[in-house]
Amino acid sequence: MPTLENDRLVFRFPHIENNARFSIDFQRTLRIPDSERTYSLPPGFGPFPLRHVDDYPKRLSATTTARGGIILPMWQAEALWLNFRNQGPGYSLDFPVAIKVAAGKINAVTGEPWSPRLHREPQDYLVSPEQPWLDGFAVSRGVIRQFVAMPLGDGYSVEEQLTGEDTWGGLQISVTPLKASVWHQKRRKWEEARSRIVSSDLCLDVPPSVSACAAPLGLGAGGLMRQEISADPFNLDDWDTEATDRVFITLLHAKDWKTVTGEAAPNAPPTARDYSRAGLPWFEYYGKDQQVLPGSTKLSGVESVGNAFKDKTGATLVESEDLEQGAPKAIGPGANSARSVRTNKGLWD
Predict the structure, then answer these.
(1) Domains: count for the chain
(2) What is the pTM of this model?
(3) Labelling 238: which of 32, 248, 316, 324 has CA 20 to 30 A away?
(4) Residue 345 domain-assigned (yes or no)
(5) Which residues contact 74 (CB under 8 A, 6 or more apart)?
């Protein structure tokens, strides 16, 4: 089972190798303008706090308690991205995993209903380390719509738009490691190449309910962002599906965080406009020459949070106007600054 360590969700696979592990943190970030303009990657301002559902059985709804997993606080209309980190056994070769991400019961890559299996046609999962992070719903080749927290029951969430129900909310994540035989072969080839170098379904069928003291949130589709979803470089049979770990993440409204946990809620995030006015960088990720998935036609037809808000109220969602970014900072293995990190906590601190 995954564990929580310093606000990271950690998956371990000791049956493959003692130190083979993978972790996810959920980064606080800017909500980009919800317009037809496509933006570069916004920064991470550090992880959301994560807590075990089991630690607060009397302060959460029966449904949340039955699902288990973890909770994290988000303000309404706040955005997040999932930051992936792979670690091999004591050296720089990253341990690969396949990751399925669903908003409620909707797959964030394909727009299809949640399924515990890995599918290749179309590919309904991510492969890390090829995929360093995920910011939203894959709506077309190289473009996503940002994950944005919105209340359930008002038609904002992707889950509600595609299923007509607000049953689940939150996130579901499953992580599948490579089979031991495939990993050991990959490791052996890597070590041989290095030696030649001369120079240096927790998805339970429980009827939903909403606690009077803790309002759960769902994920709507926010603004457009440049982000590629990489194709799987392995064979489908290379994945050890018997070792898959799954977890449910309940998104609590930040106003309820202190009531549930006794801890102060995180401050509301800065706006994208504040960030750009401060002259701080946005980012452009350059991977190696891997194949890219085409995106989902189902997800491309989902109404964005900003459009849904305008349809319902006649008003424009705050901070939806376009802004100037400046030249984005190049990061990733295909960029000159390959070791650059996609974080910037200065404005928050």
Answers:
(1) 1
(2) 0.88
(3) 248
(4) no
(5) 48, 80, 149, 217, 251, 252, 253, 254
